[in-house]
TrEMBL record:
Belongs to the isochorismatase family. Pfam families: Isochorismatase. This is Isochorismatase-like domain-containing protein. GO terms for cellular component: cytoplasm. Residues 14-166 form the Isochorismatase-like domain.
Length: 203
């Protein structure tokens, strides 16, 4: 159909956004251990695939604290920005860094918290700027799963692509002969979250 976007992802034109994967969220974000596992999977794959990762920490000097230690941020430590806004692009430092590289970027893959607030607002800002936006369904959550389900459905209505970490990572590679294919495939094929996260995507 004319005018329909396919949402294809390519290694040389994709950026990953990791939103507010901070320590204190363990206390009240639904399925937080699961989305931490997925965030780690996405970050580890980005390092192998040489995909840029930009991240935020919401008011990290406050009670939420830093990014969880489970996730290796060493290779993008200079691309983690403190924010106080409800969109990652509302953070001036983050937005400036992203827009400097965005001439080569066509798609952004988002994961983290909260699905109904910062992921939601960031996604809509990116859609308004003309980017293809992919939200990792098994890599986002909120305080309550109802909020997450409705946010994902609302994002679909706005033209955001909602998919799983495995699908996104394998789609990015496309060619099984790539030297790093097997390493990333093994990461992508790790057992997905099994506590209801995937079964509660909202139909």
């Amino acid at each position: 159909m004319a005018g329909t976007r396919s949402g294809k992802l390519f290694l040389d034109s994709t950026v990953f956004f990791m939103c507010d994967m901070q320590e204190d969220f363990r206390r009240f974000i639904a399925y937080f251990p699961d989305i931490t596992t997925v965030a780690k999977r996405m970050v580890d794959s980005a390092k192998i695939l040489d995909i840029p990762v930009l991240a935020t920490e919401h008011n990290p000097q406050g009670p939420l604290g830093p990014t969880v230690e489970d996730i290796d941020t060493s290779f993008f430590k200079n691309y983690i920005f403190p924010k106080h806004t409800l969109s990652m692009l509302g953070c001036e430092g983050f937005a400036n860094k992203f827009h400097k590289m965005s001439k080569n970027v066509k798609a952004v893959v988002l994961f983290g918290v909260m699905a109904d607030i910062c992921i939601f607002n960031t996604s809509l800002d990116l859609v308004d700027e003309g980017f293809d936006v992919h939200v990792v369904a098994d890599g986002v959550s909120s305080k309550h799963n109802c909020e997450r389900m409705i946010a994902l459905e609302r994002l679909r209505q706005s033209g955001v692509f909602v998919s799983t970490s495995k699908s996104i990572l394998l789609h990015l590679m496309k060619d099984t002969s790539l030297p790093f294919y097997e390493e990333v495939r093994l990461l992508a094929n790790n057992a997905p979250p099994d506590q209801g996260l995937i079964n509660a995507l909202g139909q």
